[in-house]
Amino acid sequence: MGLLQGLLRVRKLLLVVCVPLLLLPLPVLHPSSEASCAYVLIVTAVYWVSEAVPLGAAALVPAFLYPFFGVLRSNEVAAEYFKNTTLLLVGVICVAAAVEKWNLHKRIALRMVLMAGAKPGMLLLCFMCCTTLLSMWLSNTSTTAMVMPIVEAVLQELVSAEDEQLVAGNSNTEEAEPISLDVKNSQPSLELIFVNEDRSNADLTTLMHNE
Protein backbone atom coordinates (compact mmCIF):
# COMPACT_ATOMS: atom_id res chain seq x y z
CA MET A 1 0.00 0.00 0.00
CA GLY A 2 2.82 2.40 0.82
CA LEU A 3 4.56 1.56 -2.46
CA LEU A 4 1.38 2.28 -4.40
CA GLN A 5 0.95 5.64 -2.69
CA GLY A 6 4.56 6.51 -3.44
CA LEU A 7 4.06 5.66 -7.11
CA LEU A 8 0.94 7.80 -7.25
CA ARG A 9 2.86 10.72 -5.82
CA VAL A 10 5.56 10.52 -8.48
CA ARG A 11 3.32 9.34 -11.32
CA LYS A 12 3.89 12.49 -13.35
CA LEU A 13 7.65 12.12 -13.10
CA LEU A 14 7.37 8.46 -14.09
CA LEU A 15 5.29 9.39 -17.13
CA VAL A 16 7.75 12.07 -18.20
CA VAL A 17 10.70 9.67 -17.96
CA CYS A 18 9.22 6.27 -18.83
CA VAL A 19 6.99 7.12 -21.79
CA PRO A 20 9.82 8.32 -24.09
CA LEU A 21 11.98 5.36 -23.05
CA LEU A 22 9.24 2.80 -23.66
CA LEU A 23 8.44 4.26 -27.09
CA LEU A 24 12.07 4.71 -28.10
CA PRO A 25 12.25 1.37 -30.03
CA LEU A 26 9.80 2.81 -32.56
CA PRO A 27 12.22 5.30 -34.18
CA VAL A 28 15.25 3.08 -33.46
CA LEU A 29 13.93 -0.09 -35.13
CA HIS A 30 12.26 1.85 -37.95
CA PRO A 31 14.61 4.72 -38.80
CA SER A 32 12.31 6.80 -40.95
CA SER A 33 10.76 10.21 -40.74
CA GLU A 34 7.29 8.70 -40.43
CA ALA A 35 8.27 6.57 -37.42
CA SER A 36 10.03 9.50 -35.79
CA CYS A 37 7.00 11.71 -36.38
CA ALA A 38 4.70 9.06 -34.87
CA TYR A 39 7.02 8.78 -31.86
CA VAL A 40 6.92 12.54 -31.25
CA LEU A 41 3.15 12.69 -31.69
CA ILE A 42 2.51 9.81 -29.27
CA VAL A 43 4.80 11.29 -26.62
CA THR A 44 3.14 14.68 -27.00
CA ALA A 45 -0.34 13.14 -26.82
CA VAL A 46 0.50 11.22 -23.62
CA TYR A 47 1.93 14.34 -22.01
CA TRP A 48 -1.10 16.35 -23.09
CA VAL A 49 -3.78 13.88 -21.94
CA SER A 50 -2.14 12.90 -18.66
CA GLU A 51 -1.05 16.49 -17.89
CA ALA A 52 2.27 15.16 -16.66
CA VAL A 53 3.69 18.51 -17.74
CA PRO A 54 1.84 21.80 -18.28
CA LEU A 55 -0.06 22.03 -21.56
CA GLY A 56 2.19 24.80 -22.83
CA ALA A 57 5.28 22.67 -22.23
CA ALA A 58 3.61 19.67 -23.88
CA ALA A 59 2.84 21.79 -26.94
CA LEU A 60 6.52 22.71 -27.24
CA VAL A 61 7.70 19.08 -27.34
CA PRO A 62 7.51 18.85 -31.18
CA ALA A 63 9.49 22.09 -31.47
CA PHE A 64 12.47 20.33 -29.89
CA LEU A 65 12.03 16.72 -31.04
CA TYR A 66 11.23 17.29 -34.71
CA PRO A 67 14.61 18.93 -35.43
CA PHE A 68 16.33 16.38 -33.18
CA PHE A 69 15.00 13.40 -35.16
CA GLY A 70 15.33 15.18 -38.49
CA VAL A 71 11.62 15.29 -39.26
CA LEU A 72 11.60 19.05 -39.87
CA ARG A 73 14.10 21.84 -39.65
CA SER A 74 13.98 24.37 -36.85
CA ASN A 75 12.83 27.25 -39.04
CA GLU A 76 10.00 25.14 -40.47
CA VAL A 77 8.79 24.14 -37.01
CA ALA A 78 9.01 27.74 -35.79
CA ALA A 79 7.01 28.92 -38.80
CA GLU A 80 4.22 26.50 -37.84
CA TYR A 81 4.13 27.89 -34.32
CA PHE A 82 4.14 31.55 -35.37
CA LYS A 83 1.43 31.74 -37.99
CA ASN A 84 -0.52 34.91 -38.60
CA THR A 85 -3.68 33.43 -37.10
CA THR A 86 -1.88 32.43 -33.92
CA LEU A 87 -0.30 35.84 -33.49
CA LEU A 88 -3.65 37.51 -34.15
CA LEU A 89 -5.30 35.36 -31.47
CA VAL A 90 -2.55 36.17 -28.97
CA GLY A 91 -2.87 39.88 -29.73
CA VAL A 92 -6.64 39.85 -29.33
CA ILE A 93 -6.36 38.00 -26.02
CA CYS A 94 -3.89 40.65 -24.83
CA VAL A 95 -6.31 43.40 -25.88
CA ALA A 96 -9.18 41.65 -24.08
CA ALA A 97 -7.06 41.33 -20.93
CA ALA A 98 -6.18 45.03 -21.09
CA VAL A 99 -9.84 45.98 -21.57
CA GLU A 100 -10.82 43.88 -18.57
CA LYS A 101 -8.00 45.28 -16.43
CA TRP A 102 -9.01 48.92 -16.97
CA ASN A 103 -12.76 48.18 -16.67
CA LEU A 104 -13.47 49.38 -20.19
CA HIS A 105 -15.79 46.41 -20.68
CA LYS A 106 -17.95 47.62 -17.77
CA ARG A 107 -18.28 51.05 -19.33
CA ILE A 108 -19.26 49.54 -22.66
CA ALA A 109 -21.71 47.21 -20.93
CA LEU A 110 -23.29 50.07 -18.98
CA ARG A 111 -23.65 52.11 -22.16
CA MET A 112 -25.30 49.17 -23.92
CA VAL A 113 -27.72 48.67 -21.04
CA LEU A 114 -28.61 52.37 -21.09
CA MET A 115 -29.17 52.32 -24.85
CA ALA A 116 -30.97 48.99 -25.20
CA GLY A 117 -32.60 48.78 -21.79
CA ALA A 118 -33.03 45.61 -19.81
CA LYS A 119 -34.88 43.81 -22.59
CA PRO A 120 -33.11 40.54 -23.47
CA GLY A 121 -34.10 40.84 -27.12
CA MET A 122 -32.56 44.27 -27.58
CA LEU A 123 -29.40 43.29 -25.73
CA LEU A 124 -29.07 40.19 -27.87
CA LEU A 125 -29.53 42.29 -31.01
CA CYS A 126 -26.79 44.70 -29.88
CA PHE A 127 -24.39 41.84 -29.20
CA MET A 128 -25.18 40.24 -32.54
CA CYS A 129 -24.47 43.49 -34.39
CA CYS A 130 -21.20 44.09 -32.53
CA THR A 131 -20.06 40.52 -33.04
CA THR A 132 -20.96 40.65 -36.73
CA LEU A 133 -18.89 43.79 -37.27
CA LEU A 134 -15.92 42.33 -35.42
CA SER A 135 -16.17 39.03 -37.29
CA MET A 136 -15.68 40.87 -40.58
CA TRP A 137 -12.13 41.73 -39.55
CA LEU A 138 -11.21 39.14 -36.91
CA SER A 139 -11.56 35.39 -36.59
CA ASN A 140 -14.44 33.86 -34.66
CA THR A 141 -12.20 32.84 -31.77
CA SER A 142 -10.72 36.32 -31.49
CA THR A 143 -14.15 37.92 -31.61
CA THR A 144 -15.39 35.66 -28.84
CA ALA A 145 -12.36 36.51 -26.72
CA MET A 146 -13.12 40.22 -27.07
CA VAL A 147 -16.89 40.03 -26.54
CA MET A 148 -16.93 37.67 -23.54
CA PRO A 149 -15.78 40.26 -20.94
CA ILE A 150 -18.47 42.67 -22.19
CA VAL A 151 -21.16 39.97 -21.92
CA GLU A 152 -20.08 39.15 -18.37
CA ALA A 153 -20.16 42.83 -17.43
CA VAL A 154 -23.67 43.23 -18.86
CA LEU A 155 -24.89 40.24 -16.85
CA GLN A 156 -23.33 41.67 -13.69
CA GLU A 157 -25.00 45.04 -14.31
CA LEU A 158 -28.40 43.40 -14.82
CA VAL A 159 -28.08 41.26 -11.69
CA SER A 160 -26.98 44.22 -9.57
CA ALA A 161 -29.86 46.34 -10.93
CA GLU A 162 -32.38 43.62 -10.05
CA ASP A 163 -30.94 43.34 -6.53
CA GLU A 164 -31.18 47.10 -6.04
CA GLN A 165 -34.80 47.09 -7.23
CA LEU A 166 -35.69 44.30 -4.82
CA VAL A 167 -34.05 46.10 -1.89
CA ALA A 168 -35.75 49.39 -2.80
CA GLY A 169 -39.13 47.66 -3.17
CA ASN A 170 -38.83 45.98 0.22
CA SER A 171 -37.89 49.25 1.94
CA ASN A 172 -40.78 51.13 0.28
CA THR A 173 -43.21 48.40 1.32
CA GLU A 174 -42.08 48.60 4.92
CA GLU A 175 -42.34 52.40 4.97
CA ALA A 176 -45.74 52.54 3.27
CA GLU A 177 -47.32 49.75 5.33
CA PRO A 178 -50.38 51.30 7.14
CA ILE A 179 -51.10 50.72 10.80
CA SER A 180 -54.01 48.34 11.02
CA LEU A 181 -56.83 49.27 13.41
CA ASP A 182 -58.08 45.72 13.55
CA VAL A 183 -55.02 44.40 15.30
CA LYS A 184 -55.92 42.92 18.65
CA ASN A 185 -53.62 44.27 21.32
CA SER A 186 -53.05 42.85 24.74
CA GLN A 187 -54.46 46.01 26.38
CA PRO A 188 -58.28 46.18 26.77
CA SER A 189 -60.21 48.69 24.70
CA LEU A 190 -62.18 51.61 26.12
CA GLU A 191 -65.49 49.98 25.23
CA LEU A 192 -64.69 46.91 27.29
CA ILE A 193 -63.65 49.10 30.23
CA PHE A 194 -66.94 51.03 30.14
CA VAL A 195 -68.98 47.83 29.85
CA ASN A 196 -67.18 46.30 32.81
CA GLU A 197 -67.72 49.47 34.88
CA ASP A 198 -71.46 49.45 34.07
CA ARG A 199 -71.73 45.82 35.10
CA SER A 200 -69.91 46.44 38.38
CA ASN A 201 -72.14 49.45 39.17
CA ALA A 202 -75.28 47.41 38.44
CA ASP A 203 -74.09 44.62 40.71
CA LEU A 204 -73.35 47.13 43.50
CA THR A 205 -76.83 48.70 43.19
CA THR A 206 -78.51 45.29 43.35
CA LEU A 207 -76.54 44.39 46.45
CA MET A 208 -77.56 47.61 48.24
CA HIS A 209 -81.26 47.02 47.45
CA ASN A 210 -81.04 43.52 48.83
CA GLU A 211 -79.55 44.78 52.06
TrEMBL record:
Quote a single Gene Ontology cellular component term.
Answer: plasma membrane
To which protein family does this belong?
A: Belongs to the SLC13A/DASS transporter (TC 2.A.47) family. NADC subfamily.
User: Where does it primarily localize?
Assistant: membrane
- Parts of the chain that traverse the membrane: 45-69, 81-99, 119-138
Name of the protein described by the UniProt record: SLC13A4 isoform 1
The source's domain of life comes to: Eukaryota
Matching PANTHER family = SOLUTE CARRIER FAMILY 13 MEMBER, SOLUTE CARRIER FAMILY 13 MEMBER 4
Give the bilayer topology: Multi-pass membrane protein
Query: Which species is this UniProt entry from?
Result: Pongo abelii (Sumatran orangutan)
Q: Name one GO molecular function term.
A: solute:sodium symporter activity
Q: Where in the cell is it found?
A: Membrane
The question of whether Transmembrane helix is a record keyword is answered with yes
Entry keywords, A to Z:
Ion transport, Membrane, Sodium, Sodium transport, Symport, Transmembrane, Transmembrane helix, Transport
